[in-house]
């Protein structure tokens, strides 16, 4: 298996760094799937061992050079697991100063993602900073767990207000309750609500866009989730999404989709919790 790519565009390097940084705030480990056309960052749910975070990065947007050889001609893919914080720290210099970065698979006493970052210098044309991020190659027998997740039919999809507004509200709520109920209807109303032993607290957002209305005839669709898992979405500010669409399957699952350019697709699934 071989993989090698190169980025020189400052915006591409920024987007790549911001994507990895956002994922690092959601999970300590991540699996990178390398294919001939795209890179995928995948985070599994520890309980059900199915993807809850799925980020797709288009090769043509990010890389001026890109070559890979997978496990076989029939299965031309590579899967490797890495520490998200370690990769994030290695990418720090890309945001402002780097001229280019090469990323490749290497074997330095153990498999690594090696980053060769070209930085400007006052005394020479440039100098190179090398980071080796240890990885664990995922065996083919385990690939099935990292396949594209099935996206179920949802009752309703509604565009969220500014992530800044969401953060301000949910940050206060999470200190009061471990659970958050998300409610939406066809009129563009979104309600974030918590229930405690002494009170029920809710914030209403009105006149939001509803790209997919509910056709079930219900007055509203609701899902109760772990509030900490929902609060994670405030970290997505770093990738500057145009909008974030929240899709609800009544009392089953929340699906959040970041609407970015065609070069990046970001998906996040939050299963419902049962409260006795």
Number of helices: 5
Kindly state the mean pLDDT as a whole number?
A: 90
Strand content: 35-45%
Give me the side-by-side strand order of the main sheet. Answer: 5-1-7-8-9-6-2-3-4-17-16-15-10
Number of strand segments: 17
Unreliable runs: none
Q: Which structural class do the helices and strands define?
A: alpha+beta
State the separation between the terminal residues, measured CA to CA. 50 Å
Order of helices and strands: EHEEEHEEHEEEEHEEEEHEEE
Largest sheet: 13 strands, antiparallel
Cα-based radius of gyration, to the nearest Å: 21 Å
The shape is elongated
Helical content, roughly?
A: 10-25%
Regarding quaternary structure, what we see is single chain
Keywords, please?
13-stranded antiparallel β-sheet, four-stranded antiparallel β-sheet, alpha+beta, 17 strands, 276 residues, single chain, 5 helices, elongated
What can you see in these coordinates?
The chain is an alpha+beta fold. Helix content is 15%, strand content 43%. It has helices at 10-24, 59-62, 84-90, 163-173, 227-231; strands at 2-7, 29-34, 38-44, 51-58, 65-69, 78-83, 100-107, 111-120, 126-137, 156-159, 179-184, 190-195, 200-205, 221-226, 243-249, 253-259, 264-271. α1 runs antiparallel to α3 (84-90). It starts with a strand and ends in a 5-residue tail after the last strand.
